[in-house]
Please model this.
Amino acid sequence: MDKQNRISPAVIRRLPKYYRYLGELNKVGINKTSSRELSEMTGFSASQIRQDLNNFGGFGQQGFGYDVENLRNEIAKILGLDKKYKIIIVGAGNIGQAIANYTGFYEADYEVVALFDKNPKLIGTSIRNALILDADDIEEFLAKEHIDIAVICTPKSVSQQVAEQLVKCGIRAIWNFAPKDLKMPEHVYVENVHLNESLFSLTYYYNQMRKKENE
Amino acid sequence: MDKQNRISPAVIRRLPKYYRYLGELNKVGINKTSSRELSEMTGFSASQIRQDLNNFGGFGQQGFGYDVENLRNEIAKILGLDKKYKIIIVGAGNIGQAIANYTGFYEADYEVVALFDKNPKLIGTSIRNALILDADDIEEFLAKEHIDIAVICTPKSVSQQVAEQLVKCGIRAIWNFAPKDLKMPEHVYVENVHLNESLFSLTYYYNQMRKKENE
DNA sequence: TAGATTGTTAATCGATTAACAATC
DNA sequence: TAGATTGTTAATCGATTAACAATC
Model:
């Protein structure tokens, strides 16, 4: 529809990196930067950085560069980091707990509201102010509370079923840690973190390097 | 050098997915498949799947398709999943512990040999047969034991320093969970799992969908 | 054999890079 | 003003898709 709908995923994946480096510059009191400087930090070409940013607007000043804080705020706005998000985590096993404890998210306005699990030993306990509730009560909970993002940390065997239940209750953003591709309707966005696939790629490149050394 | 060195990363990222779906087919006793069938499962085009596989060899039979088990074994060989790997985890906080507990890896031959941490309360305890050792003893440990892959789960403030120490001790494959880009020499491969960036992309697409609905 | 599906080349598409005019 | 760096168009590069001959 509008311009932004056609932005390629590759661009979107680079934005968080710009955001992070701009935050670092900001923290050390640097308030001016350039595409060349950002290129050195990120490893992306200066040309690509300018192209990326100009998908969303002209944030720089010709002959000068970019104002660090301003550019950071603009990227935050593009990504939506200027808003608050409520999160639930389904599956309070190792990964679910790790996500709930992950302090990196609290830099932005993400709040883990609750976790859900079937394990009676976990139900009733809490992690950083977020209660672990009975997985049977998810639907009831979602009827009452508005939740933006659901994190799936269940075993893969139930992940599809859990996802469908969540979508039925109005969830449209899923962060999926189960090693399974969820089949979801168009209006639901799924972001996968497939640790297995990541480790397998690493393994491939590790072996490539070993081969090279033996030549 | 040889053909494999020029395989694009996009291809390598798809291989673990093929491997996973072939495993599922195998499990339910299906022993023949085709690029069309794999296309339906993975969402990649049949043409792309054939292209991908033919980077490594002709694993199919014209007019027939692919033998599920054979193709799975071939992909395992390409990725190096037919070998054993010893892993250490540096940083035994939430994420480090979650990785150590993650059973998904044990399907292949990955073994978490030890974890390292500075926290005296953790040192001496163990997770699934892997001891948590004093982070000060990493170098000594690596001098004795051959380790293939190091997982960095430390705070980002020390991740670069830890990585350099590991590389000095001969580590050449790093799985990095710290939200930082490690500056490493050419002969070290780093696979990043940047949860922040993943969540930020998710946030972008979530907001895009909301906008679309309000039009 | 006829039908099916691979392997592979050619065509298309999209993303990245290069170049430079605009302009601060 | 001169120098610098953006914004933007054009050129290049690489990845995906289409097409089809090979062949089981």
